[in-house]
Each structure stands twice: as C-alpha cells, then as structure tokens.
Amino acid sequence: MSFDSCISLDHNFFRLVYCLVLWIQRISFMSLYRTILLIDDDKEDQEIFRDAIEEVDTSVHCLCANNGEEALILLGNDITAQPDLLFIDLNMPRLNGKQVLQEIKKQPHLDGIPVIMYSTFFGENDIAEITAAGAVHHMIKPTKFAELCESLEKILTTRW
C-alpha cells in the first residue's frame, strides 16, 4: 500500500496513522546535497564510493577526479556548476589531500563548499592540520560496503 492510495481509503484513525507512518518513512531520508565531487586516485575506491552513493540516494550525482590537479582544473572551469560537497583522499600522488584542501580554501568561489577528508588512516597531526585548513569532517574509508553506506547517509543528512 502506498501513501497515495491511503488517501482514497476510509479515513478512520488507524488508516490515517498508517498512512502517516508510510509518508514519514518515505521522506525520512532526504539528502541535503545533490552533487558530490570525490577526489581520489584509486579507481576501485571511486567505483565503490559511487555505488554506495547510488545505494544511499539515487538523486545524488557523484563526480570523480583522479587526482588533485584534475580536481582543481575541474573546479576552476565552471563557477556555476560547483559541487555541494567535496570528499578528498588524504594520500594522493602529485598534490596530496592537504595541499588540495589548502588550494580549494584559497578560492573564494569554492571556500563555502564543505570538505570531508577521506582516507584509510588519519594521524592526530593529520586531523589537526586538515581541521585548521578548513575540512568540516574526516572519514576513515570503511572496509565494508554497508558501513560506507551508513557513513554516507549520516554525512548526506548533516548540514555542514
């Protein structure tokens, strides 16, 4: 039974409550973000991340950049089509995640985009440095797909 079909049923109290429960379940997960840019040099991690985003919310579009230089070029090209949220891998060749974060925060048209650092490990110094540089959160790459989906669901419903 869908919410829409509940409207045409008798409006006794129990059916109304049931319809409200269905409606609340339908709207309970609503992502605050429509476009994500993942900056990660590992193609397999990109694919798993995209699959998890698709699992969590099909309305969220996930773009990927293979390294920091590519991301900065992509972000510098079109001011009107900026992502709503950035995930940056900490350990990448050429420009590492900290360097990419610093470059992003120097650009006024990108400074307001929340940045989440994404890595297999964060040391205490890493956390202090990325927080001081403007990252709103850090996330350790989960080893299980379900854990990644759960983490992303929390992130997508948090107003950074």
Short description:
Helix content is 48%, strand content 15%. The chain contains seven helices and five strands; from the N terminus they run ααβαβαβαβαβα.
Label the structural class: alpha/beta
Radius of gyration: 19 Å
Total helix count?
A: 7
> What do the pLDDT scores average to?
87
Strand content: 15-25%
Low-confidence spans: none
Q: Span between N and C termini?
A: 36 Å
The main β sheet shows up as: 5 strands, parallel
Highest CATH level, the class of the largest domain: Alpha Beta
CATH architecture of the largest domain: 3-Layer(aba) Sandwich
Give the strand tally.
Answer: 5
| CATH fold group of the largest domain | Rossmann fold
Oligomer: single chain
- What is the string of SSEs from the N terminus onward? HHEHEHEHEHEH
Number of domains: 2
Question: How does this structure look, described?
Answer:
This protein is α/β, with parallel strands linked by helices. It folds into 2 domains: 1-30, no CATH class; 31-156, Rossmann fold, CATH 3.40.50. The chain is built from 7 helices and 5 strands. The protein has helices at 3-8, 13-27, 43-56, 68-77, 97-106, 124-133, 145-156, and strands at 35-39, 61-65, 85-89, 115-119, 137-140. Strands 2-1-3-4-5 form a 5-stranded parallel β-sheet, with helices on both faces. α3 crosses α7 (145-156), α4 packs parallel to α5 and α5 (97-106) runs parallel beside α6 (124-133). The protein starts with a helix and ends with a helix.
